[in-house]
Amino acid sequence: MRALRPYLVFTIVFIVSRVGFYAAGLRFSTEHVGEMMHFLPPSLLQDDLARSLLYMHSQPPLMSVFMGLTMKLFPGHYEFAFASVFALIGLGFGWIQMALFERLRFPARIGLAVACAYALLPQTVVFEHYFFFTHILAFLMLASALLLARALERPTGPRWLSFFLLIAVIVNFKSAFHLIWMVLLGVAAFVCLPRVKHRTVAVALALPLLLGGAWYAKNLVMFGHFQSSSWMGFALAFKSYRGIPVSERRRRAQRGELAPVTAANIYGGVDEYARALGVDLARDRTDVPLLEMKRKASGQHNFHHRIYIEANQAIAAEAWRLIRSDPGPYLEDVRKSLRYFGKPATDYRPVNTPYRQIQRYCDAVNTLLHDRWGGYGLCLWTLMMLSCMVFMVPRLIAFARAPRSQSVEDLVYIYMALTALYVYVLLIFLDSGETHRQRMVVDPFIVTCFALDLRRLWRRRARRRAPAQTSDSAPEPSPT
Length: 480
What we know:
- It is built from 23 helices and no strands.
- The chain is an all-alpha fold.
């Protein structure tokens, strides 16, 4: 019963805090469910889910599966269902955080304190009340660290299977986590475990790898690209030619200096891209509503239309050409992406509704964590990220020298730090203007790594003081 006491305390803190935020006016927001480009049109999620998933080329499938099933099960109350699931995820997030700290041999009170503090962060509260990928993905990432710690403590088949199955879920949830990332994790498991456990890992990895690669194989067969998303071109367009006005791009495209696809607005409509590419939409018409619908019921463009497959391929090819020939605009955008890293995730524009409902609270806490100190651009959150990257280096060196003699704590640290670095590199070099939001999915890793760093520094300091204390407390020799 004593072991469950921290979980009970956190549950009480969580419920009381959410009741308080509700009393302050905070409500769950689903205002962009019908508008956000990432989501399938709600009408298709409710009435044509299976076929839409089969022909979806733009995103991995699991978020759409979750949305579609929820809308089918609760057709008139899906907003309440989404809010309930997100609240349960928030509660489970704290439980998993405490369980992970327990596995990493922290006292229960430390895990409880960290879980309570994280649950009260403005970004946690705001994204828990806004329907989007971020909150769910952060939960899945933290759960993966816990499952990895369990598998490393006792490397049985079921434990490794549960870890790799969750990795397959993440791969099929967000395109940033590529199938290659999953393969590299499997290779790392082989490296850090003794040979006698290699067969266990291989068997445990087989089914998750098949599940993780199925979406890629489907896209390769149906659409000709071995990716979970066809939207890479959009990201590269923002990195390369967004700064050139559309009117100038059109003139340069007419002169042959730019590819015809650049004449369209980056997030232009179906007809605009069809004109730019010279595509006759009537010629290859299909009977799949998802691939033919030009606009959603909300009036927003349907970026799941088939034209965006060809458009993104053309955009990506031209963007890479521009980056190679004139890297200046790209490097300037990379610099801007770096600046976004220290910003609060609540600055992400679409979450304005829940943010404004508790704006005073958000601004007070964010000023401490994210605003500049002394004009140098550093803040507490940035310092934590830098600490993680710096202290990862000696652990990686030790791992390279003796991979099978590392502790569970060090191996979990390396997993979390390298995954955070992987996400950072993708965001800095391939994303524009959303690094502060997308960073959130690995923020729990940064907090955990920072706690491990502080513990290591504290133990090192204690060891240095121990000899001096021993000599000071030693009895004086007898004069006789």
